Amino acid sequence: MAAKALTPRASLAPDRTERVLGALALALLVAALTAIARGHADWPAVSLAIWVHLATVLVALTLTPVMLWQPRGTRRHRKLGYVWVGAIVISALDSFWIRQVNHGQFSLIHLLSAFTAFQAPLIVRSARRHDHAGHRRAVRALVIGGLLTAGALTFPFHRMLGVWLFG
After folding, report:
1. Nearest to 56 by CA among 97, 99, 89
2. Domain spans of the chain, in order of start
3. Per residue in 102-148, pLDDT tens?
4. In whole angstroms, what is the distance from residue 39 CA to residue 73 CA?
5. In Å, how far are 53, 98, 124 from 103, measured between CA atoms?
6. pTM of the predicted protein model
């Protein structure tokens, strides 16, 4: 019987892409916090669904660099990962109650919410299976699509955070 060929194990250390994604998450976090602070006069008019959405997104944005830059495979990484995935899922599901921008209808950004709701369980499944490459791909896809792209789309087009930030 032939011996199994050993393949080098992929490094669990953060790579350049993850360092950049973490930095972008921090930049988006700063922009969101600045916008929220600047919009304080309008806070009473903001719906509960939007506050829940903002809170869960802020948790995810705060944890993203921690998760991407810190050691992986630790108990801390696993626990924070569940918090991160929970925040992302709650944010995605909550977004379906936020439809003021498109006259009560769903908008294109809701496709990213559906993508997020689909992608999040893949992150957990790949981690539990110790599929490091699959987990890394799934996390990157969700950070890029469900967090950074969706987040960036909240600032233009006269949306609330954009109005508050650029006023």
Report:
1. 89
2. 16-37+46-166
3. 666 777 788 889 999 999 999 999 999 999 999 999 999 999 988 99
4. 39
5. 19, 10, 35
6. 0.88
The full DSSP string for the chain is -PPPPP-PPPP-S--HHHHHHHHHHHHHHHHHHHHHHHTGGGGGGS-HHHHHHHHHHHHHHHHHHHHHHSPSSSHHHHHHHHHHHHHHHHHHHHGGG--GGGTTS--THHHHHHHHHHHHHHHHHHHHTT-HHHHHHHHHHIIIIIIIIHHHTTSSTT-HHHHHHH-
Rounded-to-integer distance, Cα 146 and Cα 81, Å: 15
User: What whole-number distance in Å separates Cα of residue 57 and Cα of residue 161?
Assistant: 13
Sign of the dihedral through C-alpha 141, 55, 45, 95: positive
Contact 151, 60 (CB under 8 A): no
Quote the longest CA-to-CA distance of the chain: 74
**Closest residue by Cα to residue 159 from 116, 107, 117, 92:** 107
